[in-house]
Write a structure and sequence with these properties.
With about 220 residues, the chain is of the alpha+beta class. Helices cover about 20% and strands about 40% of the residues.
Length: about 220
């Protein structure tokens, strides 16, 4: 049986221990180090069409890494592309929806579809940029989440895209959104859990690119 364990503090590694015959799927490029007894292969998951859909709809890699313990047990260390926290989730009674780029690894019995929904039976590992926190949604307590901070949520939750403002009318909401710097958010309702990250990848990349010498010079000349 595959055993996942997070190792480290703020920016942990994921340790996956495999018995002989086990295999785990990971996001491409996630492998840090592994025992020589293990094998690493790139394979499509869920068929050719499903892999294409994940690539173009969710910007996930076409091929996923499969780490297999064919002849002997072994251990592999995995890490996400962005620095941050990781969470190990059970899939079975609960199914999960994943935000783009948050999939890190899963056991063989978990199916991740083109809609980034994790179903089946086993364990799923997700990653978030920065620290990850869990929020609870109740029928009497809907929650608004900025899309850039979403990591994963209970597939049974209902959600809709909206604007984070109390102004009435689409024009008023758009004006308030521009003034506050807040864009479209998702409104979740029902009963279930949501995982959010403290950092927004899009905002961080915008900040990095805005600090390039060429961009700073262009701003000063405006």
């Amino acid at each position: 049986m595959v055993r996942f364990e997070a190792e480290g503090g703020v920016d942990p590694l994921l340790r996956a221990t495999l018995d002989k015959g086990d295999s785990v799927a990971t996001e491409s490029g996630a492998m840090v180090a592994m025992d020589a007894s293990l094998s690493l292969r790139g394979k499509t998951r869920g068929g050719f069409l499903n892999s294409i859909a994940r690539k173009f709809l969710n910007d996930e890699t076409f091929f996923q890494q499969w780490i297999e313990a064919e002849d002997a047990p072994g251990t592999v260390l995995l890490a996400p592309a962005f620095p941050g926290d990781i969470r190990i989730l059970d899939v079975g009674p609960a199914e999960w929806m994943l935000a783009d780029g948050c999939f890190l690894a899963s056991t063989e019995g978990v199916d991740v579809t083109a809609r980034m929904q994790a179903s089946g039976s086993g364990q799923l590992v997700v990653s978030g940029f920065g620290s990850v926190r869990e929020m609870e949604v109740r029928p009497d307590k809907p929650v608004l989440i900025d899309n850039g901070h979403l990591v994963a949520w209970d597939a049974s939750l209902d959600y809709e895209i909206t604007l984070k403002t109390n102004r009435s009318g689409i024009f008023g909401r758009l004006v308030e959104s521009q003034l506050s710097g807040e864009g479209f958010v998702l409104r979740f309702s029902g009963s279930g859990r949501i995982l959010v990250s403290s950092r927004n990848q899009g905002s961080f990349l915008d900040w990095v690119f805005s600090r390039r010498p060429r961009d700073k010079a262009e701003k000063e000349n405006e």
